[in-house]
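Protein modeling request. Please complete all fields; requests missing the sequence field cannot be processed.
Requester role: graduate student
Desired output: 3D structure, token encoding
Chains: 1
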Amino acid sequence: MTLTYLQRRERLYQPLRESGTFTWDWMYGEEYALASLHLISPSFRQELSLATTHLARIFAKMVPVLQRADDSLLRELGIPEEALAAVRTMVSVEIPTVVGRFDFAHTPEGLKMLEFNSDTPTGIVEAFFVNDFVCRFFDEENPNAGLSAQIGPAFQKIIGSYRNVGFDTGHIWFSSLDWHEEDKGTTLYLMEQSGLGARFAPLEQLRVQGDRLYIQKEDGLEPVDVLYRLHALEKLAEERDEDGYPTGAHVLELIAGKRLAIINPPSAFLMQTKALQALIWSLYEAGEFFDGDEREIIGRYMLPTYFENRFLGTADYVTKPIFGREGGGVTLYDAKGNPLDRDREELYWEQPMIYQQRAELPLVTVETAKGEYTGRLLWGSFLIGGDASAVIARVGGPITNNLSYYLPIGIQNG
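Delivered output (414 residues):
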């Protein structure tokens, strides 16, 4: 008997839900994880890894320069005043971020990077855990096979780096919003894979007192030396308690004073700002700072990106908030400045914007619970401990948002 899509979907995702590791195959009442497999060639899989490796080199080269730069440059890149000291904390030149994700458009000119989610990326459980299960279900080769083994050593290496520069690392906690199913599931998965013997606590239980961060437990406070947080630093910088006390700024002071180690490290936040893409492109156009090989990488994989609109009358373009996520605050324009599409959510519109040449995402048709859907395909490629790692595909509108489908992928052999 031939299974319907919904029957196949239930056979695929019910065991994952029951395992407790992946419970958000539906989100906000809508299908999120698709019950089909998109096959890619081994050569395209290799190209994603190469692009990730090469771009990681470019961004990592910028970090120590920015950490020594004047505050005025960091402010221009959007770094909040409260975080200026913290982001100068150098932990590891080799691992400026432990878990990052580059997002790519596959264009006729090759892969083009749209952004680097270096601070708090998601899609991790889908890429490292779910994709393997789906490939086995369909009896196809998993392009991410064995790559979850990179996670533990990356976390353990950054702990060693923190210890080497004078941080205490005895009390390790992983934290996220307790009510957010995806964030909590992602955090728990990373905690398990890290091999650190850490514990989980909701963000709501964090308390800052004096020169320490604590977890509020029923029987008192427990100290935190190392905190993995699925919580963006730009949000932390703004946070205040009910009495108006700037708790977020206090936590950032602890980081700068080597009283709290965070994962991802502060350097990841420097790479998160999309304004850095504009700075890199400016240096590339000026022929400064980067050598010939690095300039070739930038020209091949990056898009022209500026702090002001240089595309009007010449090329289609996109405006993006410097710390926006999941397509928030993005608007697409044609070369005449006419808006083609815009994000409909309320977040991120107050942020400074960068202007980037538009790279149109290719169309792909997939089967869904609502029938066939033709959408735009976005590629994500993870960077774990400085090395290229698992890849993930999302399908949605011209602007990929948090309701875009997760599309499992396999390797096309023969």
